[in-house]
Structures are given as C-alpha cells and as structure tokens.
Specification:
- The complex is a heterodimer of chains A (about 110) and B (about 110).
- Chain A has no helices and 9 strands.
- Chain A is mainly beta.
- In chain A, strands 1-9-8-3-4 form a 5-stranded mixed beta sheet, with no helix packed on it. Chain A has a 4-stranded antiparallel beta sheet with strand order 2-7-6-5, with no helix packed on it.
- Chain B is mainly β and about 110 residues long.
- Chain B is globular.
- The mean pLDDT of chain B is about 95.
- Classes of the chains: A mainly beta (about 110), B mainly beta (about 110).
- The interface between A and B is medium-sized, with 27 and 30 residues.
Chain lengths: ~110, ~110
C-alpha cells in the first residue's frame, strides 16, 4: 500500500478555505485517493474519493495533479464544526484487497 | 438511513477476561471491517470479511478472533485481555466488496482494568 504524508496539524478561522495536501509518491496505477473525517470518539466518515483531476461534492473538493503523487483536499468556508482529524488514504480499487489503512492524519483546528 | 450498529457501546473487563463485540452492517452490505483505535492514536486495521470469508488481516493479535455470520453481522472475540487492549473498536461496512467508501459505526469502547 502506498504510504501517505500529511501535515500533523493545521489552524484556520471560520469562513476561510482550508487546503490539506497529502503526498503519496509511490501511488500505484490501481490506487484511488480517499479522504475521511473523524471527530473525537466517533468513527471516521467518508468525505470524498478520486482517481485523477478534480472531484467535487457537497462537502469538499479533491484536486489530483496529473502525476497523482499528491492530492489536495479543499474545504470551502470552514466552520467550528469542521474541527476534526482528516485522513488521506491511498488504496487499491476493486481489484485489490479489502482493507483501508489509516496513516497519521491532519488535525484541523478551526477558530472563531 | 440505517447505519452500522455496534454493541455494546461500552464494556469494562478485568485483565485476562474475554470480551465479544458485535457489529451489524448496513442492510445489503456484504463486507465488514474491524479497527482498533487507542487513545490519541489513528485507527488500526484488524481484519475484514467479504461474503462471510476472511478477506484481509492486519495487526490483529492472536488472542483476537472474528467471524462474519450468514446474516452478515460480525463478532470480534478478544481473550486474555490486557491493559493495552483498552481502546475504541470500530466496525465498518461496505457493499460489493471493497470500494474505498466505508461506513463506520459509532464504536465500542473497551476498558480493561
């Protein structure tokens, strides 16, 4: 499984856009990039998944450059409730195994 | 919408005792995953099942075992409990094998005294 590297923590203020970048230099052809959000004492929650270029949903956008060696999760206009840990995962798609490995996530603190 | 249900939500055991955690996946989900998350740590993958067969194994101690039943619910059995087993245990489910989108339950908090 490809190893991922993310910032340990980030601070932001309400209403700002937050971009969290994840490095995955040894990503494989079959790998997808998935982001999860986790609040304290709760299970992780799927945010977004992508393979290349840009993916957008009602919660976030995911930008993936052509070489796919990194990806950026963009959270528009964050609020205090977005304070959480964000995990970037690189996993094999349906052709692979059945496990999702969580590395060290990014602890985002949103201030008023 | 129905979510992943885990029971019990809280469990207190003594060292060397046995504990069983249960997970009921979202209806029509055929894949179940177990994770362990210690205080201040990231979730650690333990084991997964697809169509009632073990599909992948992570850092699961030999003292732990798990299975998925015919109704797709899963149970995680932990024996000879140690203080270090105190953690949040999450179950997640997905449909149609691995898709990258896992739906997590609220977790079972195990405290070993």
């Amino acid at each position: 499984l490809a190893k991922t590297t993310q910032p340990i923590s980030m601070d932001s203020y309400e209403g700002q856009e937050v971009n969290i970048t994840c490095s995955h230099n040894n990503i494989a052809t079959n790998d997808y990039i998935t982001w999860y959000q986790q609040f304290p004492s709760q299970g992780p929650r799927f945010i977004i998944q992508g393979y290349k270029t840009k993916v957008t949903n009602e919660v976030a956008s995911l930008f993936i450059p052509a070489d796919r060696k990194s990806s950026t999760l963009s959270l528009p206009r964050v609020s205090l409730s977005d304070t959480a840990v964000y995990y970037c995962l690189v996993d094999v798609g349906n052709t692979g195994g059945f496990k999702t490995i969580f590395g060290a996530g990014t602890r985002l603190f949103v201030k008023a | 919408a129905a979510g992943v249900i885990q029971s019990p939500r809280h469990l207190i055991k003594e060292k060397r005792e046995t504990a069983t955690l249960k997970c009921y996946p979202i209806p029509r989900h055929d894949t179940v995953y177990w994770y362990q998350q210690g205080p201040g740590q990231d979730p650690q993958f333990l084991i997964s099942f697809y169509e009632k067969m073990q599909s992948d194994k992570g850092s699961i101690p030999d003292r732990f075992s798990a299975q998925q039943f015919s109704d797709y619910h899963s149970e995680l059995n932990m024996s000879s409990l140690e203080l270090g087993d105190s953690a949040l245990y999450f179950c997640a489910s997905s449909r149609g094998g691995y898709t990258g989108e896992l739906f997590f339950g609220e977790g079972s908090r195990l405290t070993v005294l």
